[in-house]
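re: ur msg from earlier - yeah i can do the beta-D-mannopyranose complex, just paste it... oh wait u already did. ok heres what im feeding in:
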Amino acid sequence: MALTIIGDALPNMPWQDRPAGYEGVLWRDTRNPIIGWNPTPKTARIFNSAPVPWGDEFIGVFRADHKDMYPHLHVGRSKDAVTWEFEDEEIHMLDEDGNPYDSRYSYDPRVVLIDGVYYVTWCTDFGGPALGLARTTDFKTFTRMENICTPYNRNGVLFPRKINGDYILLTRPSDAGHTGFGDIFMSRSKDLVHWGRHRRVMTAGPVWWEATKIGAGAPPIETSEGWLLFYHGVQNTCNGFVYSFGAVLLDLENPDRVLYRTRNYLHTPQENYETNGFVPNVTFPCAALHDPGTGRIAVYYGAADTYTGIVYGYIPEIIEQIKSDSELIPGDGEEVR
Ligand code: BMA
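and the outut:
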């Protein structure tokens, strides 16, 4: 049966063909890193970020670490999703009553469009890292909603549509520091305020590249084979954490069930801008652009907590790779409460 990929046509998404002789299903943009050091006067590094289509162009919410090292969220705009212009001033949010509601720090945003509204999830300071939620329709005014959860949690990723009347969210409970553990969980909500029916979706390990902890990456992409989710996996080495990424297919109706899971990573730090920087050996996906007609996908990832890179691939090939290289681990495919 032919694969169906859901989503709006995006023929203007960035693209480069697979390099001759390259066998992997994800290949790097030759212009990587597309964002380098000191991208604006106030900011030192922009990485772990979330572009989305915006009319014929692109817009996004970007993680920018300032020169006092605090991370904040900034708006960026681009005609081609490769060359970006950023606002030097961070996003200042308002609460539902129109009062200022900023966070001491904000990082690792994900953006998803649901029923005409863009929702931003990110790691916010709530007496410790927790998940924040805001909505916007114009990327000028951001209305901050109730925080999704209490500390400690990171990597909040919303699905792009409700399933059986529920908003669906992936999270990764953590600790206050650099967290030496972590599984991916799922919660449901009718109103984006009250979350419940929590389930464990995936556990870390035992394969070494993802043995220490895992976290959801880009918002899942709906296909007839299941929800395609890119996620990061961390290995602890004698030289510190190494962040790679892989992918899974989740059940369409019950996305807490893993159908297939790559045994081998799909991407790992290898190029200089991935292995050297503020935090070496980190590749951290937070967004993907895709064009259903051609099956093309561009995954955006932070590199070494310093740069932003893009890798390209074809969704049908990635799905084939996930299925042919799949190894489920205990709990995958079952309902885990
Ligand atoms: C995680 C998050 C990410 C970061 C990664 C590697 O815990 O803080 O923002 O990219 O560590 O430093």
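cool cool. Residues 48, 107-108, 178, 243, 279, 282, 284, 302, 305 surround beta-D-mannopyranose (CB under 6 Å). ping me if u need the other ligands too
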